[in-house]
Every structure is written in C-alpha cells, then in structure tokens.
Specification:
Elements lengths: L3 E5 L2 H13 L4 H19 L5 E6 L3 H15 L4 E5 L7 H7 L5 E2 L10 E6 L11 H13 L3 E4 L21 E5 L1 E2 L1 H4 L3 H5 L1 E5 L14 E3 L23 E5 L7 H12 L4 E6 L4 H5 L6 E4 L3 H7 L7 E4 L6 H12 L5 E3 L2 H4 L5 H7 L6 E3 L3 H7 L1 H5 L5 H12 L2 E4 L5 E3 L5 E3 L12 H14 L4 H19 L5 H7 L5
Parallel strand pairs: 1-8, 2-3, 2-5, 3-4, 5-6, 6-7, 7-9, 10-19, 11-12, 11-14, 12-13, 14-15, 15-16, 16-17
Antiparallel strand pairs: 1-10, 17-18, 18-19
Helix pairs in contact: 2-3, 2-4, 3-4, 8-17, 8-19, 17-18, 18-19
EC number: 4.2.1.136, 5.1.99.6
Family: In the N-terminal section; belongs to the NnrE/AIBP family. Belongs to the NnrD/CARKD family.
Cofactor: Mg(2+); K(+)
Length: 488
Amino acid sequence: MAINETLLVTPAAMTRIDRAAVDSGLDGFALMQSAGAHVAAVAVSQFPEMRRAVVMCGPGNNGGDGHVAARLLGQSGVHVVRYGRQPGPGGDAARAFDICPGPLHPLADWQPQAGDVIIDALFGAGLDRPVSQEIAGVIERAEESGTPVIAVDLPSGLSGRTGVPTGACFTARHTVTFAALKPGHLLMPGRALCGQTHLCDIGMPARLICSDDPVWRNHPGLYREALPAASSAQHKYSRGHLVVFSGPLISGGAARLSAMAGLRSGAGLVTLATPPIAVLLQATHLTAIMQRAIKDDADLTDWLNDKRISSFVIGPGFGDLGKARSFIRLLADTGCPVVLDADAITAFASCSEKLSNLFNDKLRLVLTPHEGEFRRLFPDLADDETLSKIDRARMAAKQLNAVIVYKGADTVIAAPDGRCAVNADAPPWLATAGSGDVLGGLIGGLLAQGMPPFEAACAGVAQHGEAGTRAGANMTAEDLVMEIGKPA
C-alpha cells in the first residue's frame, strides 16, 4: 500500500485507478472508510478548538467520505451537523450514509456560527462545471463569515484538471487527498485555494497508482542520472563553453546575471558576446567571464567556426529584435543547444512558425517564457480556456520541437514527446527582477555540460528554486546567483 508523491493524476485517470482497485478485489467501502478517517484526523488535529463540524456531502463517493468523517467525528465527541444530498441506493456512499447517525439538512439551511469548521465533501476532483446557485450561496456565506474549510480531495468549484475555478469555489485551509496528487493541487490558483494539502495512504496498491499519460511533480528522479559528473581528467573545455549574448550599454546587466549563473552551474567557460560599444563597460563588471566583441552577422559567423562552443543563451536584455532573429538563425546552424529567453522569445511573436522551422532536426531548443511572453508567442493557446497550463506547455513544445519552461509560481516544463513536470517548490520571492535571467543562464550552463534539454530544464528549475530558498526573502538576483551550486 502506498501513495505516489511525484505523479500527478488527472481526475479521469483517478477514476480508472479507483475502478481498477475494486476490480482487483479491494473492498471499496474499506477504502472509503480509510479516506473518511484521514479527513476526520486532519479536522481534529488542525482545529482542536472547533465547536461544530459542518459536514457538507454530495451524492457521490466524495460525499461518502464525508459521511464516514462525520460518523467518526461524532464518535470522538465533536458536535456534527450534516448538510447536502442523500446518495442513491446501493453504492458505498449509500452504505456510509446509512450508518452515520443524525439527519441530513438542506444546504440552504446552513448559517455560520462561531466555531464552525466546514468539511467540504460535495464534489472533489471530478467537477468540471460551475457549482449550483445553492452551493455558490454556501461558498459566499463561508467566505463572508471567515469559516475555515477542509476540502475532501479538492475544494468544490475547483477543476482538478486545470487548477482553475469553474465558478464559485471554496478557499480551503486544508485539503485532504488520496493516493496521488491531481494537477489542480499544484497548478495556480488551485494550489493557493487548496491551502495545505495532505496526501494520504488509504490502502491503494502502489502498482495501481499509475497513468498512461504521466505528468510529474518536478523531482530529482527526473534528472539525477543526467547531472554532470566530476572527473579528475576534466579541463575547462570538457566542462562546456557557454555563450551568453549581451545587449547594448544600458541593458547589459541581464546578460551578466545569466553568464554568472551559467558559470556557477558548473560550465567550464562562459563568454559574453558583447556589442563593441559595450565591451569596456562590461569589462568593469567581469572577472571570471570572458568577452567577445560581436557587432553583426559577419562577426558571429566567423566566431561560430570555433567548435569548442557548447551552448548558447540569447534574449536577456538583448533589445534588438531583428538582430535577435538573425543571430538565432545562425545559432540554429551550429547544431548546439540554445536557450531563448525574454527578447529572443518576443522576437518571434508574430512568426513562431519560422522558429519551429529552424530547430526541427533534433531536440536542442529551450524556451523560458513567462505568462506575457507565452501569450505573445502562442496567442491561440493562451486564449483557449479549455486548456490547462500543462496542456498549453505540451502543445507549444510539440509545435516548436522545443522544451518549454512556462514560468510562474507553478512553472511547467514540457518536452515535445509529452514528458511534463510541474515545479511547485520555489519560494514566492523569486518573483523579482533578474530572476528569469538567472534561470536561463543556469539551464544554458547545464546544457553546455551535456545534459539533455528536458533534464537540464527540470534540474535548472529545481536548482533555481533551491538557490532562492537559501538566499531568503528580500533577496536580489545578485544574491540568487551566489547561491547556485551550494550544497543544500
């Protein structure tokens, strides 16, 4: 028996897992009893001062979990009042309802009282439509009164597939879920609406907790084996040569942050490709980073004959969108991995198909867009409200034959073959100027050392978050760079 802490399972896949468990001989009612017991335990441990457990039950199995929790809370001495709809006859939910003492009141009858704690067992993860007006009224009264909510599986009104409310939605203090997380537990704003999520083992066999279309929570198992290994025979070029392109005089700081991040990631050599007018200014800021004056296509073409160059980062503070497109065409011809960020992404906003044509040979392109950049490059995907952030990232990755690092509090990393990970461990203070430039350089440095693009992106995003945690609140991007590569 187990839980899977790294696999994200869609509500539809979870339904198949539940059905497979029962078909394999497991007692479905025993699973419901275990689920309800976990809900009751969270309620007692997190709200020992509650005066009344208000258990709101839907007609399905989620409601069945609520009836079990209500019975156990009542047996422990808690005053319990149930509201909702009675389940239909014959199933596990009906059995749980039958052995729970006390009446079931209409939802409309609930009025907040001091000391109430709501247990939301109305819908769980399966709802993908707006809740009824009756339930929306309950949600409104709960919000206005500040009544704390414990959600069973997911807050009612929240899509477990997209992490986006379908209309009115509970905001939970705690969410109790079972066997595996759903995308809605990690994707924003779902993660915030769930509060603290408790993933509980209810006796589901580990062999059944799987998916034929897996999405993962970003974790070391996705990239550990591909991390660069140290060797006594190494020299600076064998550890990779990263090139970061600098913008003009006024905006060279972004490229410096990227270059320093690439160096601290372990790359043996990092060079700034700098416009001639900015070389002297950059030189006053650089020690371990080399420079190469690159004015135009001719300068770059000449330099790209150096086969010791391993990877490129272009975009941070670059400025000139036409030159960015021209340079990227030349970089595509090298066969080396390329990271596009910031201005390099915006440069293809009106012609993304041209970008896909440049890198259609093998997987070696990584894009790191934030929400606005993603929208500029993929407006049709961004405007499709039926798609989750995972869907959008996957479709964009396939369209460009690239790894997409769709940044945010819920950064999604997607490869064109469908592999996908959601990172949810980064601290909120990473939302600061220059943080994205650091991430681009970090991924570029890992690519320079030979990591495959998807693994480099997953590792880079994870290391970026770890560095942010070590740097602490109120950090600057300069502080962030200095924490890369330090032991946890």
